[in-house]
Amino acid sequence: MMLKYFSFALFLILYVTVSHATFASETETVYPGIIQGNVIDTETGEPLTRASILILELQRGTVTDDDGYFEVRNIQPGEHLVHIRHIGYELIVKQVIVTGRDTVSITVEITKTVFRGPGIEVVGSSINEDITTYVERVLSGHRLRQQLGRTIAETLEDEPGLAQRSMGPAPARPVMRGLGGDRLLILEDGGRTGDLSGTSADHALAIEPMTAEHIEFIRGPSALVYGSNTLGGVINVIRGQIPVDRPNRMRWSGSLQGETVNKGAATGFRAYGPAGDRFAYRADLSLRSSGDINTPNGRLSNTGITTLNTSLGVSYIQPRFMLGVSGSLLDSDYGVPGGEGVADAHPNGVDIDLFRRYLEIKFRYNFEDSWFRRLDIGSTYAYYVHEEVEKPMDMDPIIGARFGVLTTHIRSDLHHNGYSFVEKGLFGIWLEHRDYDSAGVTFTPASVERAAAFYLYQESNPGLWNLQGAIRFDYRQVEPRVIRPSIIIGDIITREFGDYSGSLMVSRYLGSGIVAGGSVMRSFRAPGLEELYSEGPHLGTYTYEAGNPQLKAEYGLGTELFVRMSREKLRLNAVIFRNGMNNFIFPQNQGRPSTRRDDLPKYQFSESRVLMHGAELDFEFKLNRHVISRGIVSYVRGDFIDEEESFPLLLFDNRPFSVPMMPPLTGRFDLEYNRSSFRAGIVTRMAGSQNRIDEFEKSTDGYILFDFYLQYHLDRFNLLHTITFNVENITDNEYRNHLSRIKMIMPEQGRNFKLLYRVYF
After folding, report:
1. Under a CB-based contact definition with an 8 Å cutoff, are residues 166 and 303 in contact?
2. Looking at the structure, do residues 148 and 43 belong to the same domain, yes or no?
C-alpha cells in the first residue's frame, strides 16, 4: 500500500512539472550567445576543477569540470562581467562582449590567496548547476591521476579515514572509519550500482576507476539524501554518463596505464560533444588486464583481473530542461586466491566471472521566478550476474555458486530556494525493487526486496553560521518466493522494516580561515536478504554462511566534532567521532565447521551492540613557494558492548575481544616539490600493529613504506599531455594489510613501477 502512495506522488510531481515545462518553453526567449573557456592555476599551469563561474547581472552560472573547462549558454548580446572564483584563489572579473551568435572563448589564470570567509554559493538557472547537498571533499585532477589504482578501493586508500578490505586486488572495497559493506554507500553518478559488493568480501565493485572524472566524499545530513545507513558516509564516483549540458565542441581524453608488479596494463577513452543543435553525447571505453601479484615472498596465484567497461549516453537539452539516457556494460573476470591452511576447501582458489548491464534515464527541469528551483527525476535498471567457479584438485572446474540480481530504482528530488531562515534545500522520494536469485550449491532462497523512502534536506547560513539538517523515512520488505522452514537457519518468512533517520550539522566561521562545528546522526538499517536467508557454502569467502531470519533492524547514533583551517600556508582538518550501534549485524565465526561441509567454518549472521570511535587529521603546509608538506593520520577503535552496559563516551580499557576486521592506526606523509608544469614527491606510508582482534582473527605487525611520484604536463598541438610516474614500496618491504582476508597466505604487493599517460583535447 505504501508503495502505491509513493508511486502516485511521483506521478503527480512529474505531471505538474512537465505541464509547467511545456508552457514555459513556449514563452521564454532563447539567446544564441555562448561564453566558454578554461580556468588554470597561474603557478602550476594545472586546470582548476569546480571553479565557480557567475554572470552576476544574468544570475547565470556553472562550475568548471575536471579539465578546467566551462560553458555558459543562452547569453544575450551585450557586455557582461564574468566572475571567476575558487576557494583559496583570488577573485577574477573579466569583461566579455557578446554580439549576435558569438561564441566567446576566454582563458583565465587565477592566483592562490588567503581564504578569509565562509563558502560561496553560485545560484543560477544553468542546467550544469551543482547539486544542493554538501560535498565534504573532492578527489580530482592531478591527485586523482597520482592515486589512480586498479579499483576504487585502491584509488582511495590514502584518503583520510579510509582503508581497503580485500580478498585479493579485484574484490577490494573501501572501508571508512571501520564501516564497510552497505554502511558505506558507494554510488555511480549519484545512483546505486546494482551489484553485490556490499554483501561479501569476495564480490567486486562494478565501477572501473579509469574513466572516472572525479570522486566526491559526502557525510552528515547530505548523506541521508542517498540512504538511511550512512554513518560511514557516501562515496560518489562521478563519470557523467548522461550529459547535462551541451558543449560547443567535441572534447575527448585518452589514457594508458601500466604497472610492473602484475604485468598489468589498462587503457581508457572518453568523448563528450554536441550532436546537432539540441543534443549532446558522452561515450567511454576502458580495458584492463593484469596477471598475478608479485609479493616480496613470491607470486600470489589466482589474482589476475580482466575487465571491459563501456558506456554511451545521449541527452536532449533545452535552456530550461534536459532529458537523457545512458547504457553501460561491464564484464570482469578475476581470481580469489586459495592457500593451504586458509582455504582448505579449494586450495587452488576460485575464479569469479561477473557482468552488469546498466540503464539510466534522467530528467532535469530548472524553474524560473518560482520558489521551486530544480526538479531531478531519475531511474536506473541494473542486470547483474556473477558466477563463482571452483577448481578442485584433479577435477574439472565446477560452478559452485551463481548469483543474479535485477534492480530498479526511481528517484525524484525537488530543489527549492529560500524561505524564512532556510536558504535552500530539497525533498524527494526514492523507490527500489530488487529481484534476487541464486544457484549452485547455495540454498539461499529466491527473494524480492521492495523499498521506499521520503527525505528532506535543508540548509541555512545566518551570519557566520552554517546549519544543515535532514530527515528520512524508510520502509523495506524482504519476501522469499517460497515460505519454508530450514533446519539450518530457522523459518524463512517475509520480513518488514521501517523507521526514520536524521542528522543535524552546525558550524561557524571563527575568522582567520577557521571553521569549527559538529554533527549528530541517527541511522537506520534494515537487514538485507543475504543476512536473513543465506544458507550454504560461499566458496569465495572460505566459509559456510548461515543467515538469521529473526534479525532486527540496526540503529546507530553518530556524533562528530571538527575544526577546519584554510590559510595562505596551512590547510588543516581535524575530526573526532563516535558511533554507537544497537543490533549491529555481522557474520560471526561459530568456532566449528559446518555439519554439511566439514572443510568450511560456519559463519552465522548475529547481532550485538558496538561502539566505534576515533580521530582523523589531515594537513597541507606550504614550506615555500615550491615545496609542500602533506600528512594524514587516521585511527578507529571498535568494541562490543554488553547488553546490560550503557554506551560510554569513549573506551580506553583492554577488552577481551574487539570488533573483527578493524583497521589499525595509519598515516601518510608527503613532501612535494612543484614548479610550473612539474611536480615530484616522496611519500611515507605507515601503519601500526593491530592486536585488538576477536578470538578467531590473526594480529598483524606495523610497517613503514616509501613511495615516489613524478608528474609532468605540457601543451603540444592543442593537446594537454599529462604523465604520472609512481614507484610504490620502493624498498620492497614485506607487509600485511590487516583488513585482507588472505593476509596469512601471502603479504601485500612488492615494489611496483606505475606509469599513467593521459591526453586531453
Report:
1. no
2. no
Of 238, 221, 224, 149, whose CA–CA distance to 185 is shortest?
224
CATH for 81: 2.60.40.1120
Residue 602 lies in a domain: yes
Residue 428, CB half-sphere, CA atoms under 13 Å: how many?
26
Overall domain count for the chain: 2
**Measuring CA to CA, how many Å separate 425 from each of 76, 414, 428, 689, 709?**
30, 9, 10, 44, 42
H or E element: which one contains 495? strand 495-511
Q: What is the pLDDT of residues 519-536, one digit of tens each?
A: 999 999 999 999 999 988
DSSP one-letter code for 47:
B
Domain span including residue 472? 137-760
Q: Can you tell me the distance from the alpha carbon of 353 to that of 744, in angstroms, rounded to the nearest whole number?
A: 25
Same domain, 80 and 155: no
Q: Which helix (H) or strand (E) holds 502?
A: strand 495-511
Asked which of 52-66, 319-333, 629-643 is least confident by mean pLDDT, the reply is 52-66
Please report how many Cα atoms fall inside a 13 Å half-sphere around the Cα of residue 117, on the Cβ side.
10
Instruction: Tell me the C-alpha distance between 100 and 183, whole Å.
Output: 53
- pLDDT exceeds 70 at position 342: no
C-alpha cell at 738: 590487516
Q: Are 739 and 599 members of one domain?
A: yes
Name the pTM for this structure. 0.84
Q: Is the pLDDT of residue 15 over 70?
A: no
DSSP 3-state of 8: helix
Half-sphere exposure of 396 (CA within 13 A, CB side): 2
Q: What cell was used for 655? A: 577488552
